[in-house]
Amino acid sequence: MHPIEHFFCPNPNCPDHGRRGHGNLYFRGYSGHRQQIRMIFCRTCKAHFSERKGTVLENARLAEDQVVALLQHLQEGCGTRATSRLLGVNRNTVTRYARLAGGHARQLHQELVAFSPPDARSAGR
């Protein structure tokens, strides 16, 4: 479990949007089938959201360890059908999580590329 300093308010209209460790967030209750997903409240904009907001696990029906195992199988090169057999889930479930993870990876890549320093080798061309 991550400490509260790892999170930020996802509300784009919040003045504290994207600011980590600012003191505007606190944990406020639990959600999910077994009450294991922490809910977070923003004191600034009064919004509440899940700790899974903006991740592959948002709205996940599978257990967290199953989703992690599923993504690890795909990362190691297992196919969709093999992964579904190994984990005992439907192959459409495997495909859905693969697409979700791919979208998140693409978004993260774009953010990291936007903030990467320019390459000195290509400046002279």
Write up this protein:
The chain has 125 residues and is of the alpha+beta class. The protein folds into 2 domains: 1-53; 56-115. Helices cover 38% and strands 13% of the residues. It is built from 4 helices and 3 strands. β2 and β3 form a beta hairpin. 10% of the residues are buried.
Please summarize what this structure is.
The chain is α+β, with helices and mostly antiparallel strands.
List the helices and strands and how they pair.
Elements: E1 25-31, E2 37-42, E3 48-50, H1 64-75, H2 80-87, H3 91-114, H4 120-123
Antiparallel strand pairs: 1-2, 2-3
Helix pairs in contact: 1-2, 1-3, 2-3
- First-to-last CA distance: 47 Å
Q: What is the element string, with H for helices and E for strands?
A: EEEHHHH
Average residue pLDDT: 84
Please outline the major beta sheet: 3 strands, antiparallel
Helix content: 25-40%
Key phrases:
125 residues; 4 helices; alpha+beta; three-stranded antiparallel β-sheet
